[in-house]
Structure formats: C-alpha cells, structure tokens
From TrEMBL:
Protein name: ATPase
Biased composition (Gly residues): 706-737
Pfam families assigned to the protein according to its UniProt record, in alphabetical order: DUF4175
Organism this protein belongs to: Phaeobacter gallaeciensis
UniProt entry keywords in alphabetical sequence: Coiled coil, Membrane, Transmembrane, Transmembrane helix
Length: 937
C-alpha cells in the first residue's frame, strides 16, 4: 500500500489503514493554499520536506524558479496599488507640475498622496503571504502529465518487508523520477486584471514613460523650493521680474533686475510678472501702469502678473527695491494705399499694385471689388435691373519672406470670366496688423481690366454672355441677337463646327426661356458654353503654326485699329512673336523631313529669300517701337509687309543623303525620346500640384502651365481649351509636326489630344491620367520599350564612346523603370526624380553617341550634297540660314532652353512660386510645399 501526499490526494482516497508515523513525516505536505484561501498546510520544515531532499535533487532549479514566480505573483497582486501611486507621483514631479500649480494645491496633493501610499502599503501587508515549498511543488507538478513529483514523494505503506514488493517499488520510483526530470518552471501569472479592471496601473506606467522622455529627474529636487522665500529666507528678502512684450512685436523679454535705467519704454499690452522671496510683507509693490480696478491682490503678494496699459510709475518697496518711470509705446495703425491703376498682364491676369506698412508688420488684409453702377453705361443689355451679386473679396498677397513692416506688393488675379469683366468697379483695400487694428486705403474707381476679344464675332458672343449673366431677364434678347448672328453662317464663321455649337447654345437658351426654367445653374452653364465659343472664335484652330501666326497678326492689326491699350497691344505682340517662332520651327522640321525623303536633291535657288532670326526679330521690334510711339498707321503697314514676307518665304535645304546616316537617325530618335520624357515629367508635376489643390478642376489651377507651356487658366493641361482647339505656347504644340507622345512608335502622328478633342473630360488621378495612350505609368512603360528598341538598333562599335553610349542608355532605362514603378504606386514625387535622372542619362547618351560618330567618321567624308540658300558648305541649313543645331535667342532644341531663356524662365517660375505661397486662400499643405521649394532654391 502506498501513502500519497495530501497536496495530491482527495478525502475519499484515504486508505483504511492509518499510515505509519514514518510515512506521515515524509509525505504529509498538506494542501496548497491559493489566493482564494483554504486550510493552511503544515510548514515544510515541520513536515520534513526541504529543498535539500535527495528525491528533489534533479528538481532543485525548476523548483526554486517556481517558488520565485509564486513570490512575484503575490507581491504584484498585493502591492500594485502602491507601485501605481509611486509612479504617478514620480511622473508629476519629473514633469514639474508642482512648479505650475499653486502652493496650496501642491500641499493638498502631497497630503493626499501620503495617505494613499500608507493605505496601499497596509493593503499590501494584509494581502501578502509567503509562498511555501508545498505550493511550489504543486505548481511544478501540474506542469507534467501524471503528477510524477507527487508519486516520487510517495512512501510505501505495506509490503516493505517483501523483497519483491521493494523491487517493484524501486522500479516505480525510478520511472517517476525520470518523468519528473522533464518538469520545467512555469511562467508566473502577473496579471491583476480582476483587481484592476480599469487598467489604472497602465495609466501610471504611461505617465512615468512620458516623464522620462520629456521631463527631468532633477525637477524632483525643486519640490522643496515651492514655498516662496524658502531659499532666500536665510539671506533676506529678494525679488525678480520679467516684462514680456506681445509676441507679434518680435521684441525680446526684459529681465527687470537688469534694467539699470530709471525710464522704461514698453510696448502696449506688455505683461509684467513679479516674484517676491522672503518673509511676506518685506517687499511690496506700488504701481500706476496697469489700470486695474476692483478686487486687487495684496501689494505684498508673493507673485503678481498684469498687463501694462498706460504710462505711470512702477516701484518695489523694501530691501533692494527699485523704481521706474514707464512710458507706453502705442501700437500704431497700419497703412495701405493702392499704387496706380490696375493693369492687364500678358497672361490675361489683372494686376493691382499696393503698398502697406505697420510698426510691427502687416498681418493680413483684403481687397473688395464692387460694381460701380453710377459710372456704368446702362444701355442695351445692361439697361435691365441686374441680378444680385456679392462683391469680390480677395485676400491680399503678403511677402513670404523679408520684412512686413513696409513693402510693395501686387495682387494678381484672373477675372476674365467674371460678369463684371471690363466694367467700372470700385477697389477697396483693408490691411490688418497682429493686434487686430485695421486701415483702409482710399477707394479706387477703375475698370476691372481683363481679357478683351478682338475678333468681331468673338466679341459679339462675349457681349451676349455678359448680358445673360447681368440679368436672366435678358435671355430672350440674347437669344434674338444670337439668332441674328447665325443668319448667314458662311460669311461669319470660319469653321462649320463653331456654327453648330452656336446653334446648340441657342436652342438650349430658347428652350429654357420659353419654359421659364432658366435658373442660376442653367444660366451659369450657358454662360460657360458661350465663353468657350468666344475663345474658340478668337483663337481659332491653332493646331497649324501658319494659321496661328496669321491669327496673331489679324488680332494685333485689329487691336491697333480699335485703339487698344498699351498692355493689350504688348500682349498681342508677344503672341505674334511666339507664333512666329512656332511657324519657323515647323518650317525647319518640314525641311528636314523633305531632305530625309530625298525630295530636294538639286542645287539651291540663288534668288530665294533668306532671312536670319535676328532679321525677323528686328522687324518685330520695329513694329513694336512704332506702336509705342503712337505711329499706328506706319506700324500697321509694317505688319502687313511682315505678313506678306512670311507667306512668301521659300525654304530649300540640302541633306546628307536619301534617308540620312544610321547614326543621325539614332540621334533624332533619342531626341524624340528625350522630348517625350520631358512631357511625361511635366504631366506628373502638374498631377502633383493638383494633389495639393484638390478643389481646382482640371486645367483651372491658376498659373498652371500646360504641357506645351500654355498657362492653365481655363485650359486643359494638355494645351487644349476643354474640347476646343486651343493649344499651349510651346513650340510645335498640337501641330502635325509637333511633339510625339510616348507609345506612338515615333511615327510623328498627332497625339489624340493635340486638338483638345479627347482630353477635356479626362479625370486626373495621382500617378495616372487618362488620354494620350493610357495612364502615366503605361506611357512611361511604352517609352521604356521604345528606348530599349533604340538602344538595340544603335550602329555602335567597340570604341570608348560606343561603350559610354550604351552605359548612359542603360542608366536611362533603369531610371525609367523606377519612374514607372513609382507612378504605379502613386508616388509622384519619386517618379519625377527618376524621370529627371532618365533625362539626364539620355542627354549624356546623346553626347556620347555624337562623340562615337565623330570617332567613326573618316577624314574627307562628304557631309551632304545640298545647301540651304547660302554657302557652299556641306552642313544642312534651316529656313533662317542657321546651321543645323544652332539656335537663336529664343530657340529651343531637343527640349532644352538656351542659356538666357533658361534664366528668364527660372526667374518667372520663382516669382510665381512666391506669389502662390503668399496667397492665404491656399491650403496649408500646398503653402508648406511651396515654402520648402523657396527654401531649397
């Protein structure tokens, strides 16, 4: 019979025969006492069971670890409230809360803390009990199946004199010992979730962690200094004071103890803080500068703080006291004034200059533009009672950097589509300082200058749009005039599509007018359609460079006849210059294509006209000079001669062979790839801009430049006017010979959106824009495939320049792969960086290819058979007599700007960034991005 320890057996398992005293002394360990109470087992010492028991030799380490785990559990469950209180108190002192709170509140908190600590400690003493060896044995035995440790401690009750029984018992003990050797100490259970259901212990730990990160252990030592005069009690009374000017003044804090002068000049609303140390009453305050009334603090209060609102005296009476005469510096009102008249910029924006100043800096302002009905000529469509329309209110642009105490600035906005465009208005300007004071400028009565239409039909459509926006009562009158305009379409419309658009607008207007359903939304929709039609009639189909140049000449001629302002004439003159540049570049490309096709193999015509770009610039400069001098008749005559000369220009050009050498074809292909990569990079940058200004519809972001250089006000980013034919200003934009788009295989076909027919309604998504052959990522992949095909087809050898070309194109390919991956992930900033790397590698590859071609060229090799109107040299010439590759002052080659043009464009971009960053209406994210750009450049 076996005697089993009590921590394992149940009451109904007890043997009928009482165990011997020897077995009882060895095995009676008693039941374990858990947290829930129960009969206390006899002490391990009294039962004779110790850690040194030979039966537990192999279990000593896990048994001790188990006992320590039990000890930690009972300590945590008993003393967790005390630990939480200590952590909270330490965190408060490390964060310096006792320095911010009143002394009385600190003392109250200290007393409450001490009482809570005593209570928590008493709770822990009452709750805690030392774990016994039997508890550890029971915990460890539960980790092994079959409870071998309890069996190992069993004693043989009967048959101890029988050798067979003893042998069987020894075998059983050895087997149990082997099983018990696998026992491992269990992990202690330190959870106190039942006792702390609100997790207050974690709040205490979090507070201590914050104090360790952001506080200081040295602040604990300042607890004894919270009593006023505690440190200075032994040395006598002392004091200290500070004067804090308002933050907007930008002035430093004054330490009153260091002010040796008896006169103080202080800004208005400065805050004075005084602290007295020592016995209460040794130091007192006497002042007449705060203007305080009512229940005032004691003059001997240990700490006093108030604002200085008037002149007077400040005196500290007592040992070491001082006295000052205080003079208040009044915050002056800001000033603002409008400079000159509003002007029309070249991009059809209205510019209004102003000057503002304040003694501490201008903090903001607004300009209000209201219609001046008294100065308006109320005839025709304006005779009706106008609809209610609020004044235009805009925030004044402020300097992003520099001193705001005195500055001159310009407000630049677009009002081309506003119903009050070119009507007399009143400009009222208000400026504010940081103190909330306002100043108003003298009102200015002037027209709301904006874009004008010089084509008679476009001007008529724009006028009817104005009348419709003026009052919905004009709807029938506008419909009647539009029907009159469309009576003889063949005589007034250059494009049948424009006539159909006018008829569609007219039908919608008449339907709404007849049904009485012309509401504000329908009014705005019809006005937008009329605006698009007027712009189309004014600009025409500018897809062809020659047509665009002729259109610019007609507009300039019409403006001179109508007596337009100097600003408008200057803008139209610049348009003519740009259109002429586009036309000349188109001629150059056509000449190159004809030369490559072998269409002109003969000698040049010696009598053909030859002009340099400098000659053309001189002629246009002469026209502008005549206009500025007011000699309009002579200027118009010079313009007609210039137009006739451009129409009669003949271009012949030599070539180096039927189709050019393979090296030249490869160079041209790489140049096309570079231009296409530049277009993709421009598109990605515009998408990134629209992320910062999500409220702006596509193509309406102010100052946005289209891919071809055209400003984005009212235009799509692809250079078109919605679904119209408008194009950007960049050379070759939208022309049959213009830039090829990625994925077109370099065939020189017109892009789908070259005439705006497919791009107006596409939605912009980050990292991918529809149109032009798919998303940006797909177009980047197509361009990468195109570059790979060009790289494989290069006529390269094994020279140094050949290997440099391969390496550069490989670098460009890897950069394009990175750009494609970034575009698919929506990381536009990373994509732009990789595209920049690709363009740089392409330029390096083109340079290396040129050097490789020069190495392969044999001395005396013929450079071509034809000449271009001039010399007998073999170099190919463009229509202006320049050698192929040369550029004039305004030329662009392979997507790169000349040096002077690059500096001018960089300066314009920097000014535009500064203007946008100063506009308070933009989002904080966009303004932060613009400020980072300015900091970088």
């Amino acid at each position: 019979m076996v005697k089993t320890p009590k921590f394992r057996r149940k009451a109904d398992d007890r043997p009928a025969t009482a165990p011997s005293s020897q077995g009882r002394g060895k095995a009676d360990l008693g039941r374990t006492s858990g947290a829930g109470g129960g009969d206390a087992p006899p002490d391990s010492a009294s039962s004779g069971l110790q850690f040194s028991d030979p039966r537990l030799t192999r279990l000593r380490l896990p048994l001790r670890l188990t006992w320590l785990g039990l000890l930690s559990e009972r300590l945590v469950r008993a003393y967790w409230p005390l630990l939480s209180l200590v952590m909270l108190a330490l965190a408060a002192m490390m964060l310096g809360l006792h320095e911010k709170l009143p002394v009385e509140l600190v003392w109250f908190g200290a007393v409450a803390l001490v009482m809570a600590v005593v209570a928590a400690f008493a709770f822990g003493v009452w709750r805690f009990t030392w774990p016994r060896l039997s508890d550890a044995l029971a915990r460890l035995d539960a980790t092994v199946p079959g409870h071998p440790i309890a069996a190992l401690l069993d004693a043989q009750a009967i048959g101890s004199d029988d050798p067979a029984s003893q042998a069987l018992w020894q075998a059983h003990q050895q087997r149990m010992q082997a099983c018990a050797a696998a026992a491992k100490a269990p992990k202690p259970n330190l959870s106190v979730a039942r006792a702390d259901p609100f997790a207050l212990r974690y709040l205490a730990m979090l507070a201590l962690a914050v104090a360790v990160l952001f506080g200081s252990i040295w602040r604990v030592g300042t607890l004894g200094e919270i009593t006023p005069g505690a440190v200075a009690a032994a040395t006598g009374p002392t004091w200290e004071g500070w004067i804090e000017p308002p933050r907007y003044t930008g002035l430093p804090v004054l330490y009153l103890n260091d002010q040796t002068e008896t006169a103080l000049n202080l800004p208005e609303n400065s805050r004075l803080t005084l602290r007295f140390y020592g016995e209460v009453g040794d130091l007192t305050l006497d002042e007449t500068i705060s203007g305080r009334v009512g229940d005032l603090p004691s003059a001997a209060a240990a700490e006093q703080s108030f604002e200085i609102t008037r002149d007077g005296t400040l005196s500290i009476n007592g040992a070491g006291g001082r006295s000052w005469d205080v003079t208040l510096l009044r915050d002056q009102l800001p000033s603002v004034a409008i400079i000159g008249e509003p002007t029309l910029e070249a991009d059809d924006t209205t510019s209004l200059a102003y000057t503002a100043s304040d003694d501490y800096g201008v903090d903001g302002g607004q300009v209000e533009i209201a219609l001046d009905l008294d100065a308006l000529d109320r005839r025709h469509g304006l005779a009706a009672l106008p609809g209610a329309r609020d004044p235009i209110v805009l925030d004044l642009p402020l300097p992003l950097s520099g001193d705001r105490r005195a500055f001159d600035e310009q407000m630049i906005e677009t009002f081309a589509k506003h119903p009050w465009a070119n009507m007399p208005v009143t400009y009222r300007m208000v400026a504010q300082d940081a103190a909330g004071q306002e100043a108003k400028a003298e009102p200015l009565s002037a027209p709301l200058v904006t874009r004008r239409f010089f084509d008679p039909m476009a001007a008529a459509v724009a006028e009817q749009r104005r009348d419709l926006l003026w009052a919905r009562a004009n709807a029938s009158r506008v419909a009647q005039i539009l029907r009159t305009l469309s009576t003889y379409p063949a005589e007034v419309f250059r494009d049948h599509g424009d006539y159909l658009r006018l008829r569609t607008i007219l039908r919608r207007l008449e339907q709404h007018s007849a049904a009485g359903t012309l509401g504000p939304n329908q009014q705005e929709d019809l006005a937008e359609a009329l605006w698009d039609l007027a712009v189309q009639l004014e600009e025409g189909d500018v897809g062809d460079a020659m047509a665009r140049m002729q259109r610019a000449q007609e507009q300039l001629s019409q403006a001179m006849r109508d007596g337009a302002s100097e600003e408008e004439i200057a803008r139209l003159m610049q348009q003519l210059r740009d259109a002429t540049q586009d036309y000349l570049r188109q001629l150059q490309r056509q000449a190159q294509e004809q030369g490559n096709q072998g269409e002109q193999q003969g000698a040049p015509d010696e009598n053909a006209m030859q002009l340099s770009q400098q000659d053309l610039q001189a002629m246009m400069d002469r026209i502008q000079e005549l206009m500025e001098q007011g000699r309009m008749a002579e200027a118009e005559q010079a313009l007609r001669e210039f137009q006739q000369m451009m129409e009669n220009m003949r271009v012949t050009e030599g070539q180096q062979g039927q189709d050019g050498s393979p090296g030249e074809q490869s160079m041209e292909g790489l140049a096309d790839t570079l231009r296409e990569q530049q277009g993709l990079s421009d598109q990605a940058f515009r998408d990134l801009q629209e992320q910062f200004n999500p409220g702006a519809r596509r193509g309406e972001s102010e100052g946005n430049e289209g891919r071809n250089g055209g400003l984005g006000r009212g235009q799509s980013h692809e250079g078109g006017q919605g679904n119209q034919g408008g194009q950007g200003d960049r050379p070759g934009a939208g022309t049959p010979g213009g830039e090829r788009q990625p994925g077109q295989g370099g065939q020189g076909q017109r892009a789908p959106d070259a005439d705006g027919g497919q791009s107006g309604g596409d939605a912009a998504q980050p990292g991918g824009r529809r149109g032009l052959g798919g998303s940006l990522a797909d177009r980047q992949q197509a361009l990468r495939d195109q570059l790979r095909a060009q790289r494989d087809g290069l006529p390269l050898g094994n020279g140094e320049g050949d290997q440099a070309t391969r390496d550069a194109l490989d670098d460009a390919g890897r950069a394009m792969d990175g750009a494609e991956e970034a575009l698919r992930q929506g990381d536009l900033a990373e994509a732009i960086d990789r595209q920049s790397d690709a363009m740089e590698a392409l330029r390096e590859g083109m340079r290396a290819l040129g050097e490789a071609m020069a190495e392969q060229q044999q001395p005396g090799q013929q450079q071509g058979q034809g000449r271009a109107n001039t010399s007998a040299q073999g170099n190919r010439m463009d229509p202006l007599g320049r050698r192929n590759g040369e550029q004039g002052d305004g030329g662009v080659s392979d997507g790169q700007f000349s040096e002077g043009q690059a500096y001018r464009r960089a300066w314009d971009l920097l000014e535009e960034i500064r203007r946008r960053a100063g506009e308070r209406s933009r989002s904080d994210t966009e303004r932060s991005y613009l400020e980072r750009l300015l900091d970088r450049f």
